[in-house]
Design goal:
xylan alpha-1,2-glucuronosidase activity, 6-stranded mixed β-sheet, 671 residues, binds beta-D-glucopyranuronic acid, Alpha-d-glucuronidase, C-terminal Domain, Chitobiase, domain 2, 3 domains, TIM Barrel, alpha/beta
Length: 671
């Protein structure tokens, strides 16, 4: 096992300097012969070789001990930490008498402890630290790749990918050199991610075969990720028994079909004993599913769960199910209601190893949505919350948009009011999942600053209570080692409020979309207005917004428990930022902020575009202080962000000026 360093690829948050503090010390590792423990030994050796430290033998003096609690010959400093169970993937970190100790019950915990030491840098070797247990709050912390083997004529190779091609496949075949996959696993492990699904949820023909005759490719990827404690998952096509197995049905209650899944899954585990499980998008946007046989989603998910159970696998069954062929003239339908309508009645009917994967909002990864009520509605079901790290609707990695604050809000949202359980608590036994934003781009993420989103995802999945601004600083510190205060402060200033900036110049007050159909980049206010997709704003000459109240609208507010059902129902109490998601209001409706809706639209769009220009200006201060190639890449993206923000500003402002006839109170130029 060697630590993967890939030439010509940006090291992201793990540059060699990140290990300077630990690598300059004498380090003792007491692990076992598992893959992650082997990785820790390799990491320590690599860091020590680079930075002048040494690998200590048992009994020798050392500055850092990384040990399994079950290891023989624990030094006294580590023995002192033995006590209550630390638990799966967790570790205890302490510093006493000049020795820093990481103690874990399992090798994965050891690995996470090693990366925590790297994150702390010199601080890990300074003052004494009382013992502190670190444990992941969410059990599964997974990235979904929407990668295809082949290049899709419209979507490219990675669906909604903004960072080049797949890191797994090239020219229709698995890449010959998978070092980069291992380097990716390393980056993810350093944030706490422990699962990856390697292919698109829309499973096309070539990718469907990964389950059977192309399984060797999955095994090869699993071999690269295993050392970093990451389990591989596959997206599978519900119709596989027909398309791959030659059966005439995929009915989940048909014995032959169940038999096929059992056999096929058995073969998967013979090849990949630690395979994680399946991801399924069924009866959604044209994907096959159980509805064709008059069966429920619980029937479908349970069939796969039963096939996986003997091997310890899980099925992530996506709740993103809605009618994408709806009649836009019919105001009684509401896409926001769909997931709850389909799934809430099935609560309690899913197997224990079936995890319902729910998008954070009821629509589709918009810049601002209320938290999906499905998350509150299924107490007897294991749930995972799904986020979109890939910035499909948040600037497509051309715009700076740091999403940590949004995710932190989602995870901390309390459906049942203050003091009650938060979303992160509800999902603790399921997990947090996100669509990955990496590709074969030399910076991994196209926009180098979009790396921060990947980093923040993992950190929040491990510790949802972390402050996203602090995570940002952590990321800056690791990624720009030795950077001056000016560089660090400037990056912070550019990124910390960038989600809200993006929100200001795009669709207003939670109404969503207004993007160009198909690729979803840039403004098109009416782009989806008269289409079958169910993503409307209902702007007319009198007002704008979607009436989702129980009193006069679609009744969606009724899917929330109190107090939110009442808060969202009430025009006076509904938070401004979601007003148009829940209510259709006249343009001169006065927001809680004291300005009218239409004036708010003008103000925020002028402000947002100005802030985008301010972000570019801030970056220009850093010319000469950061790597020139990285500087140029960010600069080119910022030029596009500023251009695009102005385009949004002008289209949205013009549209609402013409619809409403209400001039800007501040007399600014609107076209
Ligand atoms: C939408 C994307 C589409 C995905 C879909 C999904 O536009 O490409 O297939 O989500 O989550 O946001 O399945």
């Amino acid at each position: 096992m060697t630590v993967p360093h890939v030439p010509d690829v940006h090291p992201a948050w793990l540059p060699p300097e990140a290990f300077r503090a630990a690598g300059a010390r004498r380090v003792l590792v007491l692990g076992d012969d598992s893959a992650p423990a082997e990785t820790v030994r390799a990491e320590v050796a690599d860091a020590c070789e680079r930075h002048g430290g040494a690998v200590a033998a048992p009994g020798e003096a050392c500055d850092l001990v990384l040990a399994l609690s079950s290891a023989a010959g624990l030094p006294a400093e580590a023995r002192a930490l033995l006590g209550p169970e630390i638990g799966a993937e967790g570790f205890v970190l302490a510093r006493r008498d000049g020795v820093t100790v990481v103690l874990a019950d399992d090798p994965a915990g050891l690995l996470y402890g090693w990366f925590e030491v790297a994150r702390l840098g010199e601080a890990a070797f300074g003052e004494a630290r009382p013992a502190r247990a670190h444990r992941p709050a969410l059990r599964r912390r997974m990235l979904d790749h929407w990668d295809n083997i082949d290049v899709h004529p419209v979507m490219g190779q990675v669906e909604r990918g903004y960072s080049g091609g797949s890191i797994f496949w090239l020219d229709g075949a698995l890449r010959a050199d998978l070092t980069r996959v291992r380097a990716y696993g390393r980056l993810l492990a350093a944030t706490g991610v422990n699962a990856v699904a390697i292919n698109n949820v829309n499973v096309h023909t070539a990718e469907a075969h990964l389950l059977t005759d192309r399984l060797g490719e999955v095994a090869a990827v699993a071999a690269e990720l295993r050392p970093y404690g990451i389990r591989v998952h596959l997206s599978v096509n519900f119709a596989s028994p027909i398309t791959l197995g030659g059966l005439d049905s995929a009915d989940p209650l048909d014995e032959a079909v169940r038999e096929w899944w059992t056999r096929t899954t058995g073969r998967v585990y013979e090849t990949i004993p630690d395979f994680g499980g399946y991801v399924v998008k069924a009866d959604s946007e044209g994907q096959p599913g159980p509805f064709a046989y008059g069966r429920s989603h619980a029937d479908g998910a349970n069939m796969l769960a039963d096939a996986l159970a003997p091997h310890g696998g899980v099925v992530f069954w996506r709740a993103f199910v809605y009618n994408h062929r709806q009649d836009w003239r019919d105001r009684s339908t509401d896409r926001a209601r769909a997931a709850h309508d389909h799934f809430a009645p099935l609560d309690g009917r899913f197997r224990d190893n079936a995890i319902l994967q729910v998008k954070y909002g009821p629509m589709d990864f918009q810049t601002r949505e209320p938290v999906s009520p499905v998350i509150a509605a299924m107490p007897a079901t294991r749930l995972a919350v799904e986020l979109q790290v890939t910035q499909e609707y948040t600037g497509q990695q051309r715009h700076v948009c740091y999403l940590g604050p949004m995710w932190s809000e989602v995870l901390g949202f309390r459906f049942w009011g203050p003091g009650e359980r938060a979303v992160a608590d509800v999902a603790a036994g399921g997990g947090l999942v996100a669509v990955s934003n990496v590709g074969d781009d030399p910076y991994w993420t196209g926009h180098p600053l979009a790396q921060a989103n990947l980093y923040a995802f993992g950190r929040l999945a491990w510790s949802p209570e972390l402050d996203p601004a602090a995570i940002l600083d952590e990321w800056i510190g690791l990624t720009f080692p030795g950077a001056s205060g000016l560089v660090r402060d400037t990056l912070h200033e550019m990124m910390d409020g960038s989600w809200e900036t993006y929100e200001r110049y795009t669709a207003p007050l939670g109404v969503g979309f207004m993007v160009r159909p198909g690729h979803h980049y840039g403004p098109d206010v009416d782009g989806y207005e008269y289409t079958p997709w169910g993503t409307y704003h209902f702007a007319d000459r009198d007002g704008v917004g979607v009436d989702r109240t129980r009193a006069t609208g679609t009744g969606y507010t009724g899917q929330y428990p109190a107090p939110w059902s009442e808060v969202y129902e009430s025009l006076a109490e509904c938070p401004d930022e979601l007003l148009l998601f829940f209510h259709h209001v006249p343009y001169e409706h006065v927001l809680q902020s004291g300005v009218t809706v239409v004036q708010h639209i003008y103000d925020t769009h002028f402000a947002g575009a100005e802030e985008a220009a301010g972000i570019r200006l801030a970056w220009e201060k850093l010319a000469g202080s950061v790597d020139p190639a990285l500087y140029a890449r960010v600069q080119e993206r910022l030029d596009e962000q500023v251009r695009c923000a102005e385009e949004w500003r002008d289209q949205v402002n013009t549209y609402f000026l013409r619809k409403s006839g209400v001039p800007d109170a501040r007399g600014r130029q609107i076209y």
